[in-house]
């Protein structure tokens, strides 16, 4: 059996019917997200009651930033990886960068009992926005100082991927610093070809090195794991598996598509060329 036929067999994964998104409603147009930073304003929708202590709150009702010390605000800056559908507005944010279709990077203020998505005006007194974005990215490294749970999932011989879990409310935002995460938990991996990555919810990051036929074959079980994790939690981020590439691994190409009868997996020609060379 040729390797392409082998792929086709492995990629026949089935899951539950995808749940509708808020954008399925014709009365609510989906905002366009530019690939670069721009001024925008957003408020996160309230999460479930069990997560109310870490909700992303509207500024009108939580922690007026004008009353907080600038040094404390700078210390609380953090980048977040969020589902675009979770933002009710996008105009006025100091930073909004597309990572993949439907996934964006935003700048937030993480306080002990509340996470705030500020406007550019809220942060004006803290100095240049690019410096704040750099600081927010640096603060993501703190999440790697926590006790992390690392699981190597092997549903079949030779097919495997790795799942990292953190307790922080938005631990999966460490996917924005993937090279640093991989260095911390799997420093032996070769990243020159990129990495298969998934963020089903705010607590988990799954990944697989691109090396050998088994790595591409592992996309089937990895896609099923991601979809079930996405469906099972209220803090879902994305049901898709991505190919993360470029030196910072922050250019993500979707490899999966959720359809009514399961999951379609598409392997780009560049990835198949890597496998043919192995």
Layout of secondary structure:
Blueprint (H helix, E strand, L loop, with lengths): L2 H8 L45 E2 L12 H7 E7 L12 E5 L2 E9 L2 E3 L12 H11 L9 E8 L2 E7 L12 H8 L9 E7 L2 E6 L3 H5 L1 H14 L8 E5 L5 E4 L1 E4 L2 E4 L3 H9 L1
Parallel strand pairs: 1-5
Antiparallel strand pairs: 2-4, 3-4, 4-5, 6-7, 7-9, 8-9, 8-10, 10-11, 12-13
Give the percentage of residues in beta strands: 25-35%
Helical stretch tally: 7
Residues in helix, % = 10-25%
**Spans where pLDDT lies below 50 across 5 or more residues:** 1-63
Q: Could you explain the architecture of this structure?
A:
The chain is an alpha+beta fold and 278 residues long. 22% of the residues lie in helices and 26% in strands. The chain has seven helices and 13 strands. It has helices spanning 3-10, 70-76, 129-139, 178-185, 213-217, 219-232, 269-277, and strands spanning 56-57, 77-83, 96-100, 103-111, 114-116, 149-156, 159-165, 195-201, 204-209, 241-245, 251-254, 256-259, 262-265. The chain has a six-stranded antiparallel β-sheet with strand order 6-7-9-8-10-11. Strands 1, 2, 3, 4 and 5 form a five-stranded mixed β-sheet that branches. Strands 12-13 form a two-stranded antiparallel ribbon. A hairpin with a 2-residue loop joins strand 3 and strand 4 (103-111). The protein starts with a helix and ends with a helix. The model is unreliable at 1-63 (pLDDT under 50).
Structural features:
alpha+beta, 278 residues, 6-stranded antiparallel beta sheet, single chain
How would you summarize this macromolecular structure in one to three sentences?
With 278 residues, this protein is α+β, with helices and mostly antiparallel strands. It contains seven helices and 13 strands. A hairpin with a 2-residue loop joins strand 3 and strand 4 (103-111).
